[in-house]
């Protein structure tokens, strides 16, 4: 009797193949084709819904301005003093930092995006209804139509229903969160150019807000520098009275001169931190929504959903 040893590989090959789990592409296409009317109807339904959603969405307009850091006329003087009299100034307890327009513009951008600045901006220009209750823009009358469930324009009262701690009138925290979604600040680190943009349902409001933001940030930074220079001048005058060292007094007098230049420079120029290179304009074309894209995505989603539904239904039928 011949006892031949069978290897595991030969034993595995001898097992008949079970093709029950393999995907039959012909059957797959047949199942999909059999449900073609369901796919067509579902796709048309999704297309109609997406078209309705796209048409219901109000137009959003985008307005932007291109800004450049303004020249720092007084920076050279402070830098020169820092290199020449830095050691002596430290003896008097005075720090000579030297002006840096890049640092000042970066600081201005951070201030521009801060909660305090934006809250002040909203309150100063009384734009809370246009920010929180706008529904659509009427081009014929160039007026914003407010949502009557949120704001009653005839009586200028807030009527929205909210749960505590929220109130009918939106808080500055709510307004800040909404405003952040409308504003875009882009800084090109290579050129130093800044693009400030606003999106709104009204193209005129979008343009106006950009103009106001540029004016307000220049005014804010100017006020800060003037106040700081004024306080520094008072401090330096006090220090002059406290010392008799000629070299230190020279440094202090030079510092007072530079602070005086700062105040003068701020008072004679409106574009203090940012100079407008390309001002904002009233956009003629909408930026959003992309209605054609919304409809196309709806059609694709409807087709995918219907095919998936047909395949799942066929799978459960074959499993029974």
Automatic annotation (TrEMBL):
Keywords: Cell membrane, Membrane, Transmembrane, Transmembrane helix. Its main location: membrane. PANTHER family: FERRIC ENTEROBACTIN TRANSPORT PROTEIN FEPE, TYROSINE-PROTEIN KINASE. Residues 21-123 form the Polysaccharide chain length determinant N-terminal domain. It is a multi-pass membrane protein. InterPro entries: Bact_polysacc_biosynth/exp (IPR050445), GNVR (IPR032807), LPS_length_determ_N (IPR003856). The chain crosses the membrane at residues 37-56, 292-316. This is Wzz/FepE/Etk N-terminal domain-containing protein. It comes from the Bacteria. The keyword Membrane applies. It is found in: Cell membrane. The keyword Cell membrane applies. Residues 275-314 form the Tyrosine-protein kinase G-rich domain. Pfam families: GNVR (PF13807), Wzz (PF02706).
């Amino acid at each position: 009797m011949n006892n031949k040893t069978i290897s595991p590989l030969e034993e595995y090959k001898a097992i008949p193949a079970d093709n029950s789990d393999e995907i039959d592409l012909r059957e797959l296409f047949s199942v999909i084709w059999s449900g073609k009317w369901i796919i067509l109807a579902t796709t048309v339904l999704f297309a109609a819904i997406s078209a309705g959603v796209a048409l219901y969405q109000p137009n959003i307009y985008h307005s932007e301005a291109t800004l450049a850091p303004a020249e720092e006329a007084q920076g050279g003087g402070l830098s020169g003093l820092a290199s020449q009299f830095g050691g002596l100034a430290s003896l008097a307890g005075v720090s000579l930092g030297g002006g840096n327009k890049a640092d000042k513009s970066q600081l201005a951008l951070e201030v521009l995006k801060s909660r305090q600045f934006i809250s002040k901006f909203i309150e100063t220009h009384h734009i809370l209804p246009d920010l929180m209750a706008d529904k659509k823009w009427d081009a014929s009358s160039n007026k914003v139509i407010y949502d009557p469930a949120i704001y009653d324009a005839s009586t200028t009262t807030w009527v929205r229903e909210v749960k505590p701690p929220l109130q009918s009138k939106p808080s500055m925290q709510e307004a800040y969160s909404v405003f952040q979604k409308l504003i875009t600040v882009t800084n090109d680190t290579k050129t130093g150019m800044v693009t400030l943009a606003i999106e709104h349902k009204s193209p005129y409001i979008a343009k106006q807000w950009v103009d106001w933001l540029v004016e307000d940030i220049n005014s804010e930074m100017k006020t800060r520098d003037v106040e700081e220079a004024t306080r520094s001048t008072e401090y330096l005058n006090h220090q002059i009275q406290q010392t008799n060292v000629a070299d230190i007094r020279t440094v202090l007098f030079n510092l007072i001169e530079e602070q005086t230049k700062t105040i003068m420079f701020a008072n004679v120029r409106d574009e203090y931190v940012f100079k407008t290179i390309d001002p904002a304009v009233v956009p003629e074309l909408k930026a959003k929504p992309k209605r054609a894209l919304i409809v196309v995505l709806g059609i694709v989603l409807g087709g995918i959903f219907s095919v998936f539904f047909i395949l799942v239904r066929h799978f459960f039928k074959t499993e029974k």
